[in-house]
Every structure is written in structure tokens, then in C-alpha cells.
Amino acid sequence: MTLSEIQSYLQLKAVTSVNNPDMKVEGGYASDLLSWVMAHAKENQLWITIQSHQNIVAVASLLGLAGIIVAEGVQVEDNTIKKANEEGINIFSCDKTVFEICGKLYELLAKGNEKC
Amino acid sequence: MLKSFPADLHIHTCLSPCADEEMNPINILNMAKLLGTKIIGICDHNTAGNIEAIKQASEGYDILVLCGMEVESVEEVHMLCFFENVETITKWQSFIYDHLPNRKNDANIFGRQQLVDKDGNVIGEEERLLLTSTNLSVNEISEKATEMGGLVIPAHIDRKSYSLLGQLGFIPEDLKVNALEFSRNASDFQRESILRLLNKEYAIITSSDAHRLQEMVFQKTFFYLETPSFTEVSMAFRCVGGRKVEIID
To answer: Which of these CATH numbers, 3.90.1180.10, 3.40.50.300, 3.20.20.140, 3.40.50.170, describes B3-247?
Structure first.
């Protein structure tokens, strides 16, 4: 399933310009401990978190993540958005809880895989 | 002429809900005296309510008490912030209180938050919930503290939880910090391996983070100063005129 399809299914609001919207998202990852995410998230995954410190951009860039979903209506800090635009990292904002987003994304990705 | 001063900059009082009631000014000062610690930092969670009492109590002791606070950021990172005197840290406290949720502490869950006088008599309880995070980012905390002439030290960076490295993965490039703190449990090896990963050199301290008297173990962190004072400590972090801070194993 592509990033832009997921964006529209989950009604994610892009807070940065969306880079590579046709890329295939290969999974999701959820955690707020950045040290843990650095050790465990994988390339082309969408990362769901409530952290909005600019370090999230570096973590996404380091791992080659498909993007970051900042959940639960947490406001994304201005310097985080600025840095993400500079580095071409996609950040989306969403009012849903981490639990809901994970559930929906899991379902979407499972369906996407069935089709293949 | 520089002299060495053993230091432990992270000690809680009975105002921190998770600390023992025995952590009153006299007990803390007597324990520091027994250990030979000459500089202590008092850092309660998001409050400075017992600082004045321990400053007053320290008058008869050959010990410098630094006015500190362990602030919790919105990312759940613990940051030690130190200020020159009671007046400045009281201003800092009202800034922090403005950024804490307006919730009451439940002593049955978190523990009591006791305000004491210089003799250790309980004179009140802080009703506000202290064991929680402010809505300030680490950058906002360090910028505001620096602007007020304070010193900023990310706490126990070797720990997985409530630490700058644990929560944020690495030290943000633009973050103003004066030193880094390792916990009393960090081995030399752990310290070395963490420091090797950092892209800058930092002044390093170790602290007991004592919540109980028996946790106030000697820290092997030595300041080399002309006289023990806040200004001299801040100069040691910047290595001014040969002043420095060292961990001697």
C-alpha cells in the first residue's frame, strides 16, 4: 500500500510537504523512546509516536522511514517541521490515539498484502 | 591556588514524593559531612521548596549547597537545573509551576511531599503533583535556564528511562548543556562507551541521585576551584583558569 493511500484512509494531515507519496509502505512501528526506535524500527515503515522534538526527524532519516505520524493531536514543533522539510522527511499529524492508528494501519497493511 | 572539592550534585529531600522522610536538611548535611563531600546539589522533582531550609541549615557546615531542581521535560527527560541563589531558583520555580498540570498529588500513590524548616520540622505539604512532566521541551528548559544564568545538566544519561539519551536517542545539536550526569550505577566501561558515541566533549559528573540516606554514596566527582561557589562551579564546567571537574576512580 502506498503512502498516499494510507494518508487518505487514515485521514492524516501532512504538516510537511509529502515526499515520494507513491512509495510502498512496508509496515508500521510505534514507540516514544527514540533510543528504542533507533534500534528496532525498519526502513520504509511508518512510525507512530507522540514525541515531536526535532530529534524524531534525525531518527526517521537515519532509518529511512516512510514517515512519522504524530498522534493524539500533539502539536508538531515548528523547528521539527522546518528540519523535516529540509531533510525530506514526511510528518503527518493525526487526532486519533496511537492505539487506534496502529489498529487501523495494521488492518490496512494486512489487506494490502492479501491482494498481492 | 586551586583546591579539590568532592561533590554530589543530585540529592533529593523529603519534598520529592519518592524520597524517604529522613531526607531532611540536617540528615543530608550530616551524611555529606561524614562522607567528606564538600559540594552538594539539592534537586527535587520540579520544585525548589526545601532549598531555603537546607541553605540556612548549611551555615554551620563546611559544605556548599547548590540550589537545584530536577525538571521533567515534555519528552520525559530529566534535567538538572542550578541557579546562583534562593531568589533566582524561586523565580525559576514559579516558571516551572506555570508549566506543570494543575493536579493534586495523591500521597497514597506517589508518596508525601513534605516541606521542612532548617531543623527538619515538617511545616507543610506541597499539594501540587510534582512527579509528572512539564509541558516544556528540553530545548525550552535549557534556553530559559541559561537565560536566567542557570546551569543545565541532563540527568543520569546512562539510564534507559527518563534520560536524554533514552527518550531522545542522542543529544540535540543545538541544546545548551553545561555537563552530563551519569548515575551512581554506571560503570567506567558504560561511561566510556557512551562518551565515545557523542560527537562533542562534555564535562562529566556522577551523582548519587539519593532518595534515601544510605544511597548518598561517595561520588568520586571532584571540582578543582579557588573557593566553593556557584560561579566557580560554572567556571569549572568551562575549564576557566585551570578549573575543572573530574571523576577519579
So the answer is: 3.20.20.140
